[in-house]
Amino acid sequence: MTHSVLITGGTGMIGRTLIPLLRSLGWRIHLLTRSSVQIEGTQTFLWNPETGQFPVESLEGITHIIHLAGAGIADKKWTTTYKQILIRSRIQPARLIHQILQTYPHQVNTFISASAVGYYGDSDEKILTEESPSGKGFLALCCRAWEQEAETFKNLGLNVKRIRIGLVLSREGGLLPVMEKALRLYSGFPLGTGKQWMPWIHIDDLCRLFVHALTKDTLTGACNACATIPVSQKTFLQTLGKKIQRPVWPIRIPSMLVHALLGERSELILMSSNASCQKVLSSGLTFTYASLEEALNNLYSTQNL
Questions:
Q1: Dihedral, CA of residue 226, residue 228, residue 231 and residue 236, to nearest 10
Q2: Residues 198, 167: contact at Cβ < 8 Å?
Q3: How many other CB atoms are there within 10 angstroms of residue 191's CB atom?
Q4: What pairs with residue 285 in β-bridges?
Q5: Which residue in 210, 202, 247 sits closest to 227, CA to CA?
Q6: Best exposed site among 24, 114, 230, 233 by fewest CB in 10 Å?
Q7: How far apart are CA 161 and CA 166, in angstroms?
Q8: What is the C-alpha to C-alpha distance for residues 146 and 94, in angstroms, rounded to an integer?
Q9: Which residues of 100-125 are buried (b: 16+ CB within 10 A; e: fewer)?
Q10: Band of the pLDDT at 175, cuts 50, 70, 90?
Q11: d(CA 92, CA 54)
Q12: What's the rounded Cα separation, in Å, for the pair 45 and 84?
C-alpha cells in the first residue's frame, strides 16, 4: 500500500527539504497551496483558508496530514495586527481542514501539526520535557493557540502529534544565514547574557522526525524537535564563527538595547529554552547530527556550498 500525505505550507523552508525526502521513500504527496505552483513529484491543489475554499479532491486516498502553514514569525515587526496574522495563519487552515473532515468521507487517521519550543516561553536553565507547562509571552500564547486547534482533531478519532520545533539550521533560511551574515560583517556579539539555551536542530534531522512521526503510531502528543546536545547562544556564535573563520567579540549587547531595537520580537533572541528530545529518542529515532559541530560541518561542507 502506498503511503499518502496532504501537506499545508509545503513551499516553505521545511517543506522544501521534507518533500524530496518523502518522495525518495515512495510517499504520494498532495500539497495545499494559495498560488499555482508545480513541485516535482507532488500534486498541488489551490485553497484559501480565509474564504473557506477547499478542494475536497485533495483528500482522495490521503491517510496523513502535515500542517506546516503559518506566517513567518520573524518576518515583520510584531504589531498588534501582525500578531493577529501570526495566530490566524496557523489556526484558520487547521480549522478549515477540521470542518471538511467532519463533512466529507475520508481515510485520514493522523494529523501532525508544527508548533515550536516557544510554547515554553523563557525558561532559563530548566530542562523542558513535553510535560512542562506553557510559559509567558507572545510566542507561548501563539503556540498554545496553535496546539489547541490541532487537539480538536482528536474528536474526529485522529492520532494527533504536535512537533515543537527548535531553531532550524539550514542554509536556505531561518536563523543560520542571519547569524552568518552578522559574523561575516564582523558584528558577531552575544545578545543579552549570551547564556540563553538554544534548542537547535539540523533541517535534515527535523524532516526525518516528521517522517518518523508519520510512521510511528505509538509516538503521539507533543514532541520536542531539537538536537541531543543543546548549546548557549554564546557557544553557538563561537562555534559558527570558528567554522566560517570570523571572530566573536567579548562584548555583549545588553537585553535592554536588544528590546529597544526589536521590541516584543526580541523574545526570539533573548528567550532561553533548554528543551529535551528524550521522548523522540525513546521512540526509536536517532539524530544524524547530535552536536552543533557535526551539523555545521555538514551544512558548510563543499557539497552544500
A1: -70
A2: yes
A3: 21
A4: none
A5: 202
A6: 24
A7: 16
A8: 9
A9: bbeeeebebebbbbbbbbbbbbbbee
A10: confident
A11: 12
A12: 26
- The residue among 83, 93, 140 whose CA lies nearest residue 116 is 140
Residue 24 C-alpha cell reads as 525518495
d(CA 89, CA 11): 15
Q: Are 261 and 77 in contact (CB under 8 A)?
A: no
- Return the DSSP state at 106: -
Helical axes 233-244 vs 292-299, angle rounded to 10°: 40
- Please work out, in degrees rounded to the nearest 5, the angle formed at the alpha carbon of residue 87 by the alpha carbons of 170 and 50: 105
Q: What is the pLDDT of residues 247-279, one digit of tens each?
A: 998 888 988 988 888 888 888 889 999 999 999
Instruction: Measure the CA–CA gap between 281 and 244, rounded to whole angstroms.
Output: 31
Q: pLDDT by residue (tens digit) across 12-33?
A: 999 999 999 999 999 999 999 9
